[in-house]
Every structure is written in structure tokens, then in C-alpha cells.
Design brief:
Blueprint (H helix, E strand, L loop, with lengths): L20 H12 L12 E6 L3 E6 L6 H16 L6 H19 L4 E4 H4 L9 E4 L4 E7 L7 H17 L3 E7 L4 E3 L4 E4 L1 H6 L4 H13 L5 H4 L11 E9 L4 E9 L7 E13 H4 L11 H59 L13 H12 L3 H15 L2 H10 L5 H9 L2
Parallel strand pairs: 5-6, 6-9
Antiparallel strand pairs: 1-2, 3-4, 4-5, 7-8, 8-11, 9-10, 10-11
Helix pairs in contact: 11-13
């Protein structure tokens, strides 16, 4: 029990269950020996228990001090602020708070308190407030994000995020991991509006910026990963997901390259992230460490190896596609050559055709022109007359050639007379 962190006027401690009689009796005995006191006015506190409120501390004769009343009012506002959160929210917040309190005990320059208790006059509260020698941190946990309320929640979170910044406090956000959504086939992460609003920019993100900046100059970079767009402005951000890995509650560090700011909020996924114990994630190093430099270095090296492999595979695929294209073009060229030779042979056969032979080959206009020039010496003027005056009625070039063969025409005049008689 942390007395200094739980004074709320008449509700210093509330238990979410019906306390056993012996537990209530023991607390009351301890209170009679005056071991509990208000951290604000130092008045002695008594213990009370009721069906509605549960187990709680109270000032004697309900004469709560002004500071307790202020904190009580702040608590009510905070309770309303987090009413949308899941039950897991308190579990996660308590885990983080316990870890930070332990660190504060060995680090005299560090102060930790529940957000609404420390900043009672604020309009927005972090779950936990941390004061360090060179900065102040606002630690908050997000749970229970859903498509139905995400847009509204994102506005609230962004407002809270900016409010903390305006107060000169650095916001740190942790998200329940069940909200994470990844498209592995596109190497992307799909973000809630709320997630995009609270993604952090850390020193390690800046390191990734420098690493990726040189790589995305390759116009095929995002094709290597099957990512569905190109990103010109390099801006790596990070999210911190909390989950239970069957052994402990841990933090997952997830980095991404910011892309779309309209739904769907797709971003380029950088690796698959990695887990950190809370003790390491919350280590103090000009704020929270929130990373493992050795793992980050290994992941950058692995990422570079992946890029090199994908470049090689992509180049091989290009060579394969180019070879396929070359072979296809050669095949098409051979096919065109063969067809042209076949047509030449057929045209030769047609030129030698006798009047009683039937035409079984469908001519085009170009072939008919060549045949008429060779057979009856048709000139350019006669050709224009044929196309403009007669072909509109006859339509099929093969019929004209049939007339020439059947009537054994030797000049265009003979052909003209025959066509005009039709």
C-alpha cells in the first residue's frame, strides 16, 4: 500500500472487492495507532468501510483539508477521462507505476506521482507524471481502440498530446498490443488515427532516418518490399505496445516510416520490432531509454542485409524478365517473317492463277494493289480511282482480283469497264 499515492479526501484507498472482515479490522487497528496521515495536511486518518465505497481512508469528522478536496475533484475528472479504457488499462498503468517508483527509490533526482494528483489544476491528465533533472514526462496508456470510436479518440488523444507539450512536458504513450495491425505481404503497418497521433520521434528513429535516407534514393526500393507506394520524405517514428508474452508484461518497440496521413493510414514497416522488459524500456537516459542500442544496431545490420538480398533478387528478376522479353520479341519477329514469306508465296501463286481457278485466299488492300500493278500495270492515278470510286461498292479486295482472273484483264481500262457494269 502506497499511502502517499492514494490520498483522495474520503477515498484514500478503494478496493474493487468486498474486503474480508479481518482485513477491515486490521486496517482500523493500524489507524487507531495513528500510522496513517494525510500527506497534504499531516492530519491523522481513520479507516472506514461501506458496501458502496469499499475500504477507504478518511479525515476524522469528515474535515478534509483543502488539498485533499482539490485532489478528489481532479480524480473525478481523471476517472471520466479514462472511462472509455478497458479494465486492462489500470493493470498496465499500475505495472508502469510500480517500475517507476522502484527507480525513483534509487534515483534521488527522480520524482514519480499519479498524473492527476501531481497536476490537479490541469485540464488533461497523464496517467503518470515523472520529473527528471532536465525534463518532465507525461506517461499515458491507451487501450480499447476500435473503428467505431477511433476518429473521436484520435482527436482527444492529439488534443491531450499537444496539451502536454504546451505545458512543457514530453508525452510518452504505451498502447495495448492487440491494436497492432500488420500487412506482411506489403511490408506495412496499418495505423489507427490515434496511433499516428501519438507516435514518438526518438534518437533511434533519427538514426533510422539517416540509414534509410540513402537507401530510398533507389527508385525501386519500395518495390523490393512490395510496398504499394513511394515515400519521398523520410520520417521514421516509433510506437510502444504493451502485452503479456506468457511470462511477463513487456514492451514491444515498433518502428515505421511514416507515409499516408489519410485512411487507410498505411506506413512502411521497419523490421518486426522487438520486445523489451519494462525495467529496460523505462531505464532513465535523458528521459526513458525505450530501446536497446545493441538490438537496434543488429536490426539495422539485418535490415541492410535484407535490402542487399532483395536488390540482388530484384536484379535477377529484371534480367529474367528482360530475357523473356527478348525471346518473345525474337519469336514474334520470326513469326512475322514466316507469315510474310507465306503471303509472298501466295501472292506469287495468285499471279500465276488461271481463269478457272478459285480464289481461296482473302486479300487485303495492299496485296491487291501489288497484284494489280504486276498483272495489269495499274498506276497511281488508277489506284486512286479504284479505291475512291469502285471499292466502296465492291468492298472485298478478293472479288476485284476474281474479276481480273475470270476475265483475263490485261489493262485497267478493261477492269474499269467490268467494274462499272456491275
Amino acid at each position: 500500500m502506497r499511502e502517499a499515492l492514494h490520498v483522495i479526501d474520503n477515498e484514500l484507498i478503494k478496493l474493487p472487492y468486498s474486503a474480508p472482515v479481518e482485513e477491515v479490522t486490521n486496517f482500523k487497528k493500524l489507524a487507531k495507532k495513528e500510522i496513517y496521515q494525510c500527506p497534504y495536511c499531516q492530519a491523522k486518518l481513520i479507516v472506514k468501510y461501506g458496501e458502496e465505497k469499499g475500504l477507504y481512508f478518511s479525515h476524522q469528522h469528515l474535515e478534509a483539508c483543502e488539498k485533499s478536496r482539490i485532489v478528489d475533484h481532479a480524480e473525478k475528472k481523471y476517472t471520466k477521462q479514462i472511462e472509455r479504457e478497458s479494465k486492462f488499462h489500470k493493470v498496465l498503468t499500475d505495472i508502469i507505476l510500480d517500475e517507476l517508483i522502484m527507480k525513483a527509490k534509487i534515483n534521488k533526482d527522480m520524482f514519480v506521482n499519479v498524473g492527476y494528483r501531481e497536476k490537479t489544476d490541469w485540464k488533461e491528465y497523464p496517467d503518470i507524471f515523472v520529473q527528471l533533472p532536465k525534463k518532465e514526462l507525461a506517461v499515458s496508456v491507451i487501450t480499447n481502440v476500435s473503428p467505431l470510436d477511433d476518429t473521436k479518440l484520435a482527436r482527444q488523444i492529439k488534443k491531450r498530446h499537444n496539451y502536454f507539450i504546451d505545458k512543457g512536458v514530453e508525452p510518452i504513450w504505451f498502447i495495448e498490443k492487440k491494436e497492432q495491425a500488420i500487412e506482411k505481404d506489403k511490408n506495412s503497418i496499418i495505423l489507427w488515427d490515434a496511433e499516428l497521433s501519438i507516435a514518438l520521434k526518438t534518437k533511434e528513429d533519427a538514426q533510422w532516418d539517416r540509414h534509410i535516407s540513402s537507401e530510398i534514393k533507389d527508385q525501386n526500393f519500395f518495390k523490393f518490399f512490395n510496398y504499394p507506394s513511394n515515400i519521398e520524405n523520410v520520417d521514421v517514428r516509433s510506437l510502444y505496445y504493451i502485452f503479456n508474452n506468457d511470462e511477463n508484461v513487456v514492451v514491444k518497440v515498433q518502428r515505421f516510416l511514416k507515409d499516408r496521413v489519410e485512411k487507410p493510414l498505411r506506413a512502411f514497416l521497419i523490421n518486426e520490432g522487438y520486445e523489451l522488459a519494462f525495467a529496460e524500456a523505462l531505464a532513465i537516459e535523458d528521459g526513458f531509454k525505450l530501446s536497446n542500442p545493441d538490438i537496434e544496431s543488429e536490426q539495422r545490420k539485418a535490415f541492410q542485409e535484407t535490402i542487399n538480398q532483395k536488390k540482388k533478387a530484384f536484379a535477377e528478376q529484371l534480367r529474367y524478365e528482360e530475357e523473356k522479353r527478348r525471346l518473345r520479341l525474337e519469336s514474334e519477329q520470326e513469326d512475322r517473317k514466316r507469315k510474310a514469306e507465306e503471303r509472298e508465296l501466295r501472292l506469287t501463286e495468285l499471279l500465276e492463277q488461271r481463269a478457272d481457278d478459285k480464289i481461296t485466299y482473302e486479300l487485303n488492300y495492299s496485296e491487291l494493289t501489288r497484284l494489280l500493278k504486276k498483272r495489269i500495270g495499274m498506276n497511281q492515278t488508277e489506284q486512286m480511282e479504284l479505291w475512291n470510286k469502285h471499292m466502296s461498292k465492291i468492298k472485298k479486295p478478293s472479288l476485284v482480283w476474281s474479276i481480273v482472273i475470270e476475265n483475263n484483264c490485261t489493262s485497267f481500262n478493261e477492269l474499269r469497264n467490268l467494274l462499272e457494269s456491275k
